[in-house]
DNA sequence: GCCGTTCTAGAATATTCGATT
DNA sequence: TAATCGAATATTCTAGAACGG
């Protein structure tokens, strides 16, 4: 099953999300990427084979890190397992799980709610402050300038 | 019994606490770590075997001191026994007991209340700044208000 | 060849850097990690095998991403190849290269100059604020006190 | 101009070591 | 002395930044 990728003004599904859905649904690659049992997350069974064999079929790269960067950019979160990082038994080797509240099996109508992240205003402000800081030669100058009593009292 | 460990949500159980609960509950290691009789604390019966055999199954180390550091970081306290410091009878050798008001047998719903100690004040300040930010409608307004106009124009 | 890891007052080599040097020098793993031809950088030939077979021998993990995070933390930079991102010929598959001006073949005396990155000035300022905060009893006091000229001039 | 890819950094927890009480 | 904590590095997950399409 695939999902429309064309921009439908209001509720279009981003290209990445659409590809991801197709990827998880595809029976041919279910041994490498598939839904979790309850359908609320998806699993990558063998990170190494997945990145080299499956990713280039959908994206312009074969790096797990780029795939994860996109997942985070769209608000997905890694599901942490109890045995994370421990020397693994063969049965449990290399299982990665990601989740997003609007990415669920049999719920394609939710996909349009998944949005790419943009910068927060707070981040923009902090960056502005840091830029100012870097232009100052001494700490005292900077600190005197920045936080004055009157400004901080709401 | 296991406890959900998903990060980044509001009321999730920290990974360490989740692992600890699993560890104490696990029947297979009840001879080394188990609940106390009243279920209000847990006991480590043989520190040496526990650290070498059980810890590496859940953590990236096999040191009792690292385990204790984490316990203290999450607000657990050692329960001091009356015979502490005395030459120990064989029956009492190597018994360590730790306690936390929200870590009790058959009360997993309390685990979410166990919090890692952090420098909370920094968070409070950041939230305060963010709150200030969110009260402003435009960037220019905000910047003018917070930090004097002259300073922000680089 | 190994490098002393003991803190020698002034110019001790950080544990990570020492391990990295040992790792690159070790003849037994030269097929997976070795010096570049000119000795000014090092190469990881097969990222997948390297991460699973070599990393756990030196670190508490087997993730390339954790290794790269440390490299960046110590000021190493990835050397970008011209064929990055292209469909790779078999001979060139999976070759990763990193470089640091003080990490060179036959120059172990430079290793002490490699330093872990520390927090940015903005963070230091925040911590200073926190220290001030902890001296105050109430929020109102704190906010007024915090950002006044006199307090911030160290 | 937004999205995708890559390299690097931020932020929180984890581990170690030594100081404090 | 024993229990707790501070601080530095280590590991993990997520985000910033630069660049190109």
UniProtKB/TrEMBL annotation, chains A, B, C:
Keyword annotations for this protein, in alphabetical order, are: DNA-binding, Nucleus, Stress response, Transcription, Transcription regulation
Which portions of this protein are annotated as coiled-coil regions? none
| SMART domains, per the entry | HSF
Segments spanning the bilayer are none
Pfam families on file: HSF_DNA-bind
Q: Which residues form the HSF-type DNA-binding domain?
A: 55-79
Compartment(s) of residence: Nucleus
Primary location class? nucleus
**Molecular function per GO:** DNA-binding transcription factor activity; sequence-specific DNA binding
* Cellular compartments per GO CC: nucleus
Q: Which family does it belong to?
A: Belongs to the HSF family.
Protein name (record): Si:dkey-18a10.3
């Amino acid at each position: 099953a695939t999902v429309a990728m064309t921009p439908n003004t209001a509720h279009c599904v981003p290209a990445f999300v659409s590809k991801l859905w197709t990827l998880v649904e595809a029976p041919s690659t279910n041994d490498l990427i598939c839904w979790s049992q309850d359908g609320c997350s998806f699993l990558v069974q063998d990170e190494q084979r997945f990145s080299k064999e499956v990713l280039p079929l959908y994206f312009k790269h074969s790096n797990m890190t780029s795939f994860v960067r996109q997942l985070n950019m769209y608000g997905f979160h890694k599901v942490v397992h109890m045995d994370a990082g421990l020397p693994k038994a063969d049965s449990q080797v290399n299982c990665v799980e990601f989740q997003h509240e609007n990415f669920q099996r049999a719920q394609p109508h939710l996909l349009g709610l998944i949005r790419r992240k943009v910068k927060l205003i707070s981040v923009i402000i902090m960056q502005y402050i840091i830029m100012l800081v870097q232009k100052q030669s001494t700490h005292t100058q900077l600190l005197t300038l920045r936080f004055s009593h009157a400004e901080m009292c709401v």
